[in-house]
Design brief:
Blueprint (H helix, E strand, L loop, with lengths): L5 H21 L9 H9 L4 E12 L2 E8 L12 E8 L2 E8 L14 E6 L5 H8 L6 E8 L12 E7 L4 H11 L6 E8 L8 H15 L14 E8 L8 E2 L4 H7 L5 E5 L2 H13 L7 E3 L22 E8 L2 E8 L4 H7 L17 E6 L2 E3 L8 H5 L2 E3 L3 E3 L3 E4 L4
Parallel strand pairs: 7-8, 7-11, 8-9, 9-10, 11-12, 13-19
Antiparallel strand pairs: 1-2, 1-6, 2-5, 3-4, 3-6, 13-14, 15-17, 15-19, 16-18
Helix pairs in contact: 4-5
The chain binds FE2/S2 (inorganic) cluster.
């Protein structure tokens, strides 16, 4: 059989090959700075970058919102529900800390792009203290973003989202509400937001504004909107657990409340403290919500180790020697039994990369060489093989004796 043009094609291929060889021979060893694929990859995954704090506002009597503008003029693409990770040096400590993005993705595409985080300080705590007391307008912070998979995914999630939030766990939903209110996302969002007292509501004004703007857009009040034209909705129901003055919903976010405000076949998204998570999980089970319809944000370990199921109470307050191996370097530091290994390292200015601080992402994966650790069962995301080979996540492991550990070099 004769294939027409076959020999011509073969000739063409060799011309290409020769041209490519020549290009390789004369090419610079450095990557082409104008390579559009490279530029796109850098834009999507720029790694660490610097942000300047340009605005600090109160989000409640105990919360502040920090607006951050990128020094390079570019914010990586992200989705509501993802987080930003800060690389901080506070006194002699070196640490990383993640915060959910409270600003909407569209705000990162404005001519003067920015992101926002909202931090609550209801008790004195290391990193919130730093942000409240030392970070000012003009401070430059190093951070990387975006991380996390706690976001709305149309191929997987229902168009009816019920957000179950507690305390500062509202921030990913503030971002989502703002995105919907700007007409960028066609999703019906109902937020059941639990607070102790109405004074504890975080980002209350932003939520109310988003509710109003989304309603106006759907009713045709937006610049290009018309009624029923495919815009989403935002509804916020505040639930107070201890507020005699409150005349709205009271108590906890119960099964009855969830049922009352849920549209059929909703996807439930949870962000809040552990006790609320346990409560809500039980309620959703009783409502026969299938597992695929329930998603939760990464949960950080409880600040009190004794709140972790199985944590041995007699270890509280004990201090052990932790030998830390990084490459050929070895250091010995003190480590409290009731604080995660990552915190002991940070206190001793030994840098360890942490993102979720809930045991799930694996950024702080380290190896136990000697000694005993208590591994928190909350959010333990280690692979089976890692467990067998004594790998642990430093954000969720507590020393129970003098230990020797090997951590990644940063
Ligand atoms: S920081 Fe994510 S597992 Fe430790």
């Amino acid at each position: 059989m004769i294939v027409k043009g076959f020999l011509k094609d073969v000739g063409g291929a060799s011309r290409v090959t020769n041209a490519r060889r020549e290009t390789y021979a004369t090419a610079s060893p450095l990557p082409d700075p104008k390579d559009p694929i490279r530029a796109l990859a850098d834009a999507l995954h720029p790694g660490k970058q610097e942000f300047k704090v340009t605005k600090i506002t109160d989000a409640s009597p105990t919360s502040k919102t920090f607006r951050l503008e990128p020094l390079n003029g570019h914010v990586p693409v992200f989705q509501s529900g993802q987080y930003i990770n800060f690389y901080l040096e506070i006194g002699t400590s070196k640490l990383t800390r993640a915060y959910s993005l409270a600003s909407a993705p569209f705000e990162a595409r404005l001519p003067q792009p920015f992101v926002e985080i909202t931090i609550r300080r209801n008790v004195s705590y290391f990193v919130p203290d730093y942000f409240f007391d030392q970070v000012k307008e003009g401070t430059v912070l190093t951070a990387a973003m975006p991380f996390g998979n706690f976001y709305y995914e149309p191929l997987r999630d229902s168009k009816n989202i019920v957000a179950l939030a507690g305390g500062s766990g509202i921030t990913p939903f503030v971002s989502l509400a703002k995105e919907i209110a700007a007409g960028k996302l066609d999703v019906n969002l109902t937020i059941l937001y639990g607070s102790v007292n109405h004074k504890d509501i975080v980002c209350g004004e932003q939520l109310a504004e988003a509710e109003k703007a989304a309603a106006s857009l759907a009713a045709g009040g937006g610049s290009s909107a018309s009624a029923g034209s495919g815009y989403g909705s935002v509804r916020v129901i505040h639930v107070m657990s201890d507020d005699p003055e409150w005349d709205g919903e009271k108590g906890f976010v119960t099964k009855e409340l969830i049922e009352k405000y849920s549209a059929p076949d909703s996807t439930y998204m949870f962000c809040g403290p552990w006790p609320m998570y346990n409560f809500v999980t039980k309620a959703l089970k009783e409502l026969n919500v299938p597992a695929r319809r329930f998603r939760h944000d990464v949960m950080q370990q409880p600040s009190k180790a004794t709140n972790i199921p199985g944590f041995p109470e007699d270890q509280v307050g004990k201090v052990y020697k932790l030998t830390v191996v990084r490459g050929i370097q070895e250091d010995v530091v003190d480590a409290r039994a009731d604080e995660p290994v990552a915190v002991a390292l940070e206190r001793s200015a030994i840098a360890i990369d942490t993102h979720c601080r809930g045991g799930e992402c694996g950024f702080c994966r380290s190896k136990l060489l000697a000694g005993d650790l208590f591994i928190s069962p909350l959010g333990d995301g280690r692979r089976a093989e890692d467990k067998e080979q004594d790998y642990f996540h430093a954000c969720s492991a507590y020393p129970m004796s003098d230990c020797k550990v090997k951590i990644p070099i940063m």
